[in-house]
Amino acid sequence: MVNKSQASQFKKKQILFVWGMIALPLLQWIICWFIVNLSSIKLAFTDARTNQLTSRNFNLFWEYLTSPYGEIKIALSNTLKYFSTNFIIINPISCIVAYFLYKKIAGYKIFRVVFYLPAIVSSVAMVEAYRQFVGPGGLINGILNIFGGSIPPEGLFARNETATNAILAYTVWTGCSVNMLLFMGAMTRVPLEVLEAAKLDGCTSFKELTSIILPLILPTICTVITITCTNVFSASGPILLFTRGACNTTTIAYWIFAKVYGDGVSGGTAKSNYNIVSCAGLCFTLVGAPLIMGIRRLMEKLPTAEY
Asked: Which of 42, 61, 287, 306 is deepest in the core (most CB within 10 A)?
């Protein structure tokens, strides 16, 4: 029998072990997140000219957001486009590609390398390859010429109407790698006995995917959806490498970068920009945090299969 003294000592050891394990991550969170964001919150309520507490930054943020040609309004619109593309197109494509690779179709090893190549090759090289691919003298232009069309001489990235859509297409091409690996890892855990029994019952590949695979990997799908939603206001593409924000391609992430670091070549801009950037970050956090927590709570309520 364990007496009360031994039980108390065991509980103390457990508590010490838990605190010992979380001490370093907690310290890192305090230094790298809490202190940094506490300073950022202070900047959001500080006038850059007088260093006094004010709501001027929020008024300026609202003007940028509501003005027809406001920087933040354009950035928010583009950011939501990238988020929607990631949520509606990239995630489903990643799952479907992962399923076909999981089924080991002919040449699946080659396809696996091809689809994961964007995560291995330098983003600068990938951007340049894509730029040549969709440029006036590229393969896409040659295909369009067959059907009587052509890419504008100045290229897709120099026009307001096509620049953002061209970068969105690039994110679809290069954005499947990580999620594809997550889905494939989840699919490999599905018991083969279940799939063999379904095959004996005449289950088609489509039925297998929708009625067996997807329900069994639902926890992974929920995790991917939750992670995707955390990027609702930070979704972006390689704007710096493509356009540097020109042609109405800026996003919230790039807008913050440009305000803090300038164009990436000449260095930072005026320190007064720190205040409006901090204000924008605080506003988007106040909107995004409850949204993400609500989606996470909703994902936790979905029934999952045990196997």
From this structure: 61
